[in-house]
Write a structure and sequence with these properties.
Shape: globular
Number of strands: 8
CATH topology: Purple Acid Phosphatase, chain A, domain 2
CATH architecture: 4-Layer Sandwich
InterPro entries: Calcineurin-like_PHP, Metallo-depent_PP-like, PAPs_C
Organism: Genlisea aurea
Strand content: 15-25%
Helix content: 10-25%
Number of helices: 2
GO molecular function: hydrolase activity
Mean pLDDT: 91
Largest sheet: 6 strands, mixed
CATH class: Alpha Beta
Protein name: Calcineurin-like phosphoesterase domain-containing protein
Cofactor: Zn(2+)
C-alpha cells in the first residue's frame, strides 16, 4: 500500500529525506509499475496504476528524485523531466548527440525510464505518442548505469 497514510509511504519519505545529497548526489526511485507508459495494455494487470502516480509522484518531486526506474512493461521508454503528465524540462543534445538534462541550477522533475526490455515477451506501444515520451524501443536489452558526482549515463 503506497497511500500517504501508510507505513510504507512514511518509510519512503523518511528514507528519501535521509539521503545526504552532498555525499550522494543522485536519488533514484525504483518501483515495479510505471507512472507513465505508452503501451496499450488493458489486461487484468494494466501497465499504469493512476492511484500510484497520484499518491507517490508528489513525494518524489518533493524529495527531488532524479531518476525513476520501473519495469512491468516489457519494452524501453524514457521521458522528459516529467511531473503530472507535463514536461518540465526537455533534454538538449550534447556534442555526441546524447540527450542531456541539467538539474544543477533548477530541479524541474525526475526523468522516468521503463527498463523492462529483458522480459518474457516484448510489448507494443500504442499508436498515440504523448509529448513526454522521448524514446521508445521494442527490443530485448538491459540497462547499465554509470554515475559520477556530476552525471549519470
Amino acid at each position: 500500500n503506497f497511500l500517504s497514510t501508510t507505513l510504507q509511504y512514511r518509510w519512503m519519505d523518511t528514507d528519501m529525506s535521509s539521503v545526504n545529497r552532498t555525499r550522494t548526489p543522485w536519488l533514484i526511485f525504483q518501483a515495479h509499475r510505471p507512472m507513465y507508459a505508452s503501451s496499450g495494455d488493458a489486461s487484468l494487470f494494466p501497465d499504469v496504476d493512476p492511484r500510484f502516480a497520484q499518491a507517490v509522484e508528489p513525494l518524489i518531486l518533493k524529495r527531488r528524485v532524479d531518476l525513476v526506474l520501473v519495469g512491468h512493461v516489457h519494452n524501453y521508454e524514457r521521458t522528459c523531466a516529467l511531473y503530472e503528465g507535463r514536461c518540465k524540462q526537455m533534454p538538449h543534445k550534447d556534442e555526441n548527440g546524447v540527450d542531456t538534462f541539467d538539474f544543477s541550477s533548477d530541479y524541474p522533475a525526475p526523468v522516468h525510464a521503463i527498463i523492462g526490455m529483458a522480459g518474457f515477451d516484448l510489448e507494443a506501444f500504442n499508436n498515440h505518442t504523448d509529448a513526454w515520451s522521448l524514446v521508445r524501443k521494442t527490443e530485448f536489452g538491459y540497462t547499465k548505469l554509470f554515475a559520477t558526482k556530476t552525471q549519470i549515463t
